[in-house]
Every structure is written in C-alpha cells, then in structure tokens.
Amino acid sequence: MARAFGAKGIGLTRTEHMFFDDKKIVAMREMILAKDSEGREKALAKLLPYQKADFKGILLAMDGLPVNIRLLDPPLHEFVPHDLAGQQTMAKEMGVSVEEIQRRVASLAENNPMLGHRGCRLGITFPEITAMQTRAILSAACELKKEGHDPMPEIMVPLIGILYEFKQQKEIIQKVAKEVFAEYGIEVEFEIGTMIEIPRAALTADRIATEAQYFSFGTNDLTQMTFGYSRDDIASFLPAYLEKKILKVDPFQVLDQHGVGQLIKMAVEKGRAVRPALRTGICGEHGGEPSSVKFCARVGMNYASCSPFRVPIARLAAAQAAVEDEK
To answer: Looking at the domain that runs over 22-75+110-326, which CATH code has it been given?
Structure first.
C-alpha cells in the first residue's frame, strides 16, 4: 500500500496481517488448536521468527519511511480448511484425529464472521497474539537500528468501536515494547494508532484520540456497517439498485460522501479537536478511486493507502485535489 499524498510522499503505509506460507500456516493452526494460553504461546513462539523476518524485510525496504502494520484482523476460521480433504490433511499435519479438527472448525463457525470474532477482539480474547506480533515488529526494528538503519514502525489496532478496546491492546503493546527494548538495549520510536472502520468509533473519535496517535479509516468495513450492505452479498441486488437509480455507483468502489463521508469528516474533526496533530488517512479500495481521494484531501487527510496497481491514479487524483485547492 502506498501514500498518495502527504508531507512524507510515497511510502508503504499498511501491511496485511501476515504473509503465510506452509510453515506459518502450520504454526497458526497449532495456535488455533491449542486448548489454553500456554499452548497458544508455544505455537506462537514458532510463528515469531517468521513474522520477525517478514517485518524486518519490510522495514529495511522502507528504511527511513513510516511503515504502518495492522495487527491480525481476519477471523480464525479463515486459517482452517472447511472441506473434508483439507481437514484430513490438517489432521495429518497436526497429529490429531479428523474428528478433532472438525470439532474445532465447527467451534469457529459464525453466522456473520465479519461482525464476529476478528480484529482487536482476537487480541483481547487471545492477548498472546498481540504480544507476539508486537515483539516481532519491534525486535525487527531494534535489530535494524543496531545495524545502522532507520526503521519507522507504526502499529495499528484494527476494528475498535470502544475506547477501552484500544486501551487494552495499547497496554499490551507498550508492555512488550519495554521488554523488547530492555532485551536489545536500544529503543525505537514508534506510534500506536487504530483503524476507524466501525461507525461508533467515528462517532466517538474524540475519546479514541485521547489514546490513539493516528487514525486510518478502513472504508471497506465502514461502508459495509454504515449502509448495512454485506460486501459478500451485495452482488445479489446491486444490479437492480443501479438499474433503478437507487444507487448511482457501487458504494464499495466509490466512497459515499453524503453518509460514510460525513462520518469520516466528523471523526477527523473530533479527533483533531483533542489531538491537533492527529495524522489521518484512508485505507481500502476507495484509496485508489479519484473522487474518493479528492474527498479525503478536502477533509484534511494526510494520505491515501491503496493497492500498488492504483497508486498512479491515486497520485494523479491527489495532485488534482492540490491544484483545485490552490484555485
């Protein structure tokens, strides 16, 4: 993901939760199968060096530029197979019965997983996940700093709707940071921020800004929760809505400035009323759509984050917004 506008120019601003290959998936599945926190910590200890290597590579590639790393966001059911063949393979890998795998898979099932056990809720339920990822990020940063580099990590807590969700995760991050810095005998400056992707978070942005150092607006989820449209199911009625002119455009492709946009504008204003230097940005598909980028510039955001393929379009839209603003 890349910055489309802002004082620091183009740079990576968000990484996905993890970069999974077979070894990492096995370790993650061991964590999911664990029956207690001790078992989860053992499994996460296996995952730690892989995460650390990933983050070290990213921070090195972005040496001297900020890297905004989002903590684990997707629900755990996404990491387990739901077909019999996959479950049989997982059972063989884990050394357990297929029946045990099926029981665990069934226990992870949710009626609406996108509104369920994901984002910061995972870190609150399983704080060892937040601790492991924080350790991986900051250990990588400390090693790079000792090697003469300038890592600039930012840790982003996803899917908060309540100030106390953020505070609980922030406490874990700060505790692990002290441990890592003591271990390496060196400190690295870093920021702790959050994704504003639940309407309640936007409405209470002034409270959240008392603790969060920056906001990244997750407009995919914010659009879904504001409209009450499922991203996964909208295709069943969107064509009719567009044909009947109920919607002019797909709101997941072009930011709804009247509804979702007003929540964003309100959150930026309320957040900066408490923290004047609050950095804000957009994160999601809208970050590469011209009219959406221009709207974000108008409400005072610092950057737009989008897929690499959309960076040229986002930069052009940001430049046009700057020219229009001057006029």
So the answer is: 3.20.20.60
